[in-house]
Write a structure and sequence with these properties.
The protein has ten helices and seven strands. The chain is an alpha/beta fold. Strand 3, helix 7 and strand 4 form a beta-alpha-beta unit. The N and C termini lie far apart (45 Å). Residues 1-66 and 75-79 have low confidence and may be disordered.
Length: 264
Amino acid sequence: MRFVSWARESAAWGFNRDKSSKEFGQLVDNYPVVTPGPRGSEMNRGALMARLVGAAMTCLAAVHICSMPAHAEPPRESQEQVLPGLDAVIGELRRGGLVIYFRHGPTDPSSMGDAEDDLSRCETQRNLSAEGRDQATRIGKAIRALGIPVGAVTTSPYCRCKDTASLAFGEYGVSNDLYFAIDADPASTAALAKSLRRLLSTPPAIKTNAVIVAHTANLREATGIWPKPEGVAYVFRPLPGARFEVVAKVAPEDWPNAVKGRAR
């Protein structure tokens, strides 16, 4: 159901600060959604939507997300602060030394979901739409035009992430540490979050930037940030002591728009 898909992808971490992304997804999937009935009957679709929309609105408050040790747990109540954009970090990106976390590009909502996924068969997964493939190509072209050096590119094993990386950057490596965290059990979710914090705190090769292409829930579990929309990027600066800080949020169109701005 597309409504349930929206709930899982867009409101999960704001619904209940004591629930993980996985737990919220299970709650939504198991919630009774029936046609309107008499008073006292199970909750109908309108009531469920009203509750979820109200919960999602709690995600709009901004709080501070500062440097975080690679081994630390993300703040339970942390929500995304207002971050600088590409202009604030483009000079540093050109010098290298940062880590760019991309959420995969736009996907086709009518394609298969991930409940019965087979990582060796893309047709069993939710994949990039035509828009998503075009967006990834344009982002990669813009990054090269802006003179931003890219070193290691690491992706989730899901096809939508591998395709985003391939179209944007060409070569990439796959890491099972970037498996979609929303479908993992609690112990695996914690391990995935720890692995991602390690990647975010690891300095890239000299004069390059590292790129990670993965999912929403992975970044939320590791840092408290729920990346939206599809194709968005967050820029992290590794710090001494196995720590890191988030320094910018880059919308998908900001990369090609920066190239257009240089041409004026």
